[in-house]
User: Fold this.
Amino acid sequence: MKKQLLAVVAVIGLITGVAGFLHQRQTRPVPQPAANGQLQVVTTNSILEDMVKQVGGRHVAVYSIVKRGTDPHEYEPRPADIAATAEAKVIFHNGLNLETGGNGWFNDLITTTHKRENLEVFAASRTVTPKRLTTNADEVDPHAWLDLANGIKYVQEITRVLKRRDPQHAVAYQTNAEAYTRKLRQLHTQSQAKFKTLPANQRVLVTSEGAFKYFAAAYQVTPAYIWEINTEAQGTPAQMRAVIKTIRASQVQRLFVEASVAPKSMQKVAQETGLKIQAKLLTDSLAPAGQPGSTYYEMMQWNLTKIYQGLSQS
Assistant:
């Protein structure tokens, strides 16, 4: 009787899975195998997707699991994501507990598709020195890409892996990577010089989430935020009092809100302090195609420009 029951459950599960997959195919195309001998690559988010495209060029076909405007911290893979990952020769994830924290969706996806760490699965942040959360020193801050020097490390790791997995096009990958990193490094050094010209008491970057630790260290600003990581306890009275106290002890004239979070809490801070919200910043996702910030370079250029303009107000 027990065996019969298990068999029935298995059949029901199979039918449910197939039905969900067929429904998904109607609403979202399942990726097809790459043509022209392109290396099939899957990335967990749009930032990594763009980096791989910049290095790989026409020799890679890239599929991003988490689409633009979607939070990569908590995600539920869809049948199309599972199919793409199963077919991929290379899978890049951020690492630093971005995709493996919370519901651990990435670990489940890799297990389901039988992919192996350092054979098909690679963390783009492998050579980055992580920063810890201030509220929990056992956890790392995943937002390393917001420092362009770390972004260059991501590109170098992506290049290393692509050359290893597709040696036939290694020269092209290296050439593309060198040109791309020169461009990123120029923006990085120019921005560092600009931020140094600001008075120290104006270099306070106030955001909703504490995602700018790497950015702050790279461009010599002091990060201030309402909450440190995305949790259910966002914008509590104690958090609001703390950030307002920091603002009043500085000469900061502008506030910022991330495009990926609700602006309600920062709007309350603006009302309380009389300061304006300067701009929306891009953190966990690139902007939609055709809009400012739709590539990693443009995303960083947007953030650096808007933050500098806001902090230079007097």
User: Anything to note?
Assistant: The chain has ten helices and ten strands. Residues 1-33 have pLDDT under 50 and may be disordered.
